[in-house]
Amino acid sequence: MNAISEVDFQKNINKIYQSVFASEDPYGSPFQPSIKPRQLLYWFRYGLLDTEPWLIPVTNAIKAIGEKGFYLTILERGGAEPYHWYVPLDEAHLYIDKIYPLCNAIYSVKGLWGIICSEQDHAVVGGSEFFVDIIQKSISDWDYRITLFLNTWKEYHEQNKDINIDWLPNFFMHIYGDKIPEVILNDPKLRYLLRIK
Q: Could you identify which of 3, 31, 73, 147 might form a hypothetical disulfide with 35, taking C-beta atoms 3.0 to 4.6 angstroms apart as the criterion?
């Protein structure tokens, strides 16, 4: 991994970051309109861990579009720099050691894709249809993961009414638009949770 100073980030990389991400909010609408399709990743523990299913699909997708590494930006500031890194693909499983447990974004050196994660075990990936399709085809239990994510937040709210879940409908609209997964459309409780008629 190669550390990138804040000065170099602002001078050379920030424009790439800004071309992928519209905000640093993993609960809102983090991607620029041009970065789609998008997909919810759940469970996602701050990085491409080799103990979770994301490492191989994501690195395969990156290789398939001809990139040899990616940028990493730590979203939670306050500690010492560096906040930015270049990560070669053969070190993709190691960057978690540098940043855990801090929310972060990883993204294309060409501004073609990105992944932004939260502290609540989810992330969102966005990129070209080719890129996202490779990841989607590599994971067999999307319906289970989406349902688990929504039911987990529903339970959080039922156990503590102070936990806000009003962000969920806009969040899912940002990810899926009018292509809401069938597992949601076929479940009245999930449809109600997301205010889908």
A: 31
Neighbouring-strand partners of residue 130: none
pLDDT category at 134 given cuts 50, 70, 90 is very high
The torsion region of residue 66 among left (phi > 0), alpha (psi -120 to 50) and beta comes to: left
Inter-residue contact 26 to 122 (CB < 8 Å): yes
Domain ranges of the chain: 2-139, 140-197
| pLDDT of residue 78 exceeding 90 | no
73 has which bridge partners?
84, 105
Q: What share of the chain is helix, strand, coil (3-state, %, to 5)?
A: 40, 20, 40
pLDDT at 81 over 90: no
Cα separation, 75 vs 63, whole angstroms: 25
Q: Euclidean distance between the first and final Cα of the chain, in Å? A: 47
Angstrom distances, CA of residue 188 to CA of 149, 157, 166, 191, 196: 16, 18, 17, 5, 9
